[in-house]
Write a structure and sequence with these properties.
Shape: globular
Bound molecules: 1,3-dihydroxyacetonephosphate
Strand content: 5-15%
Number of domains: 1
Number of strands: 8
CATH superfamily: Aldolase class I
Order of helices and strands: EHEHEHEHHEHHHEHHEHEHH
Number of helices: 13
CATH class: Alpha Beta
Largest sheet: 8 strands, parallel, barrel
Oligomer: single chain
Length: 255
């Protein structure tokens, strides 16, 4: 049984003070109550302060990016070791905004995945097709290539320490969510691809999150799909009460 995961990607939002306020409220609201694994990904500047607030709680901390080198002359970059020291357990890698706005290709993503794992961080490996690719019926070809090239030289053990996120680019920040069936079809494809490359055991244990306009209104129906194990939430993760509603998607179902 895969544990569900709800992760909030704050992108370039929140001051340190705002991030600390959010984390305090999240910690207080979740307490020791059982539920999905909860992860928040603040901007770099707020990581340390949020880590202090979340210390001893079940909420986990993620960074949004890293540089593949351990250290050196890379002005403006941050290494995996630095993120660990700041209190991160996870790091988002290959987000579509990094791929499109900052020209990160599959090879760069592969180096970052390896660097994260080497630093003892768990990657949240993001993949997804653009609208054009979907309309041209190339979704699976694109996803397969992102998997093949992104995961080059990774072992089954590495996959076991990773989360995957399927984020169709056309659904990010657009209010246009993939239907549960559209998302499920790609999630299943990803799991079958992993089974083919790394064995059925790796595939069955892999948590695959869906991302793209997830809200309290659609999370429950997405989570009903067999191969959707969680969500990577952008806009709806910025307000703590709406993020808590997503985290408590089970209660939404019962209402
Ligand atoms: P939205 O939830 O704002 O569409 O963003 C999704 C996302 O990019 C999460 O990483």
């Amino acid at each position: 049984m895969i544990e569900s995961v709800i992760a909030g990607n704050w992108k370039m939002n929140k001051t340190i003070a705002e991030a600390v306020g959010f984390a305090s409220r999240l910690r207080e609201a979740l307490g020791a109550s059982p539920g999905p694994e909860v992860i928040v990904a603040p901007p770099f500047t707020a990581l340390r302060a949020v880590a202090e607030v979340l210390r001893g709680s079940a909420v986990r901390l993620a960074a949004q990016n890293l540089h593949e080198a351990e250290k050196g002359a890379y002005t403006g970059e941050i290494s995996g070791g630095m993120l660990r020291e700041a209190g991160c357990q996870y790091v988002i890698i290959g987000h579509s905004e990094r791929r499109t706005l900052f020209s990160e290709g599959n090879d760069a993503v592969n180096l970052k995945l390896r660097a994260a794992l080497a630093a003892g961080l768990k990657p949240i490996f993001c993949i997804g097709e653009t609208l054009r690719e979907r309309e041209e019926d190339r979704t699976k070809t694109v996803i397969e290539r992102q998997l093949k090239e992104g995961l080059n030289n990774l072992t089954a053990g590495d996959i076991g320490r990773s989360l995957f996120a399927y984020e169709p680019v056309w659904a990010i920040g657009t209010g246009r969510t993939a239907t549960p069936e559209q998302a499920e079809e790609v999630h299943r494809f990803i799991r079958e691809w992993i089974a083919g490359q790394y064995g059925r055991g790796s595939a069955e244990e892999l948590a695959i999150l869906y991302g793209g306009s997830v809200t309290p209104a659609n999370i429950a129906s997405l989570m009903l799909q067999q191969d959707i194990n969680g969500a990577l939430v952008g806009g709806a993760s910025l307000d703590v009460e709406s993020f808590l509603q997503v985290v408590r998607y089970n209660n939404i179902q019962e209402v």
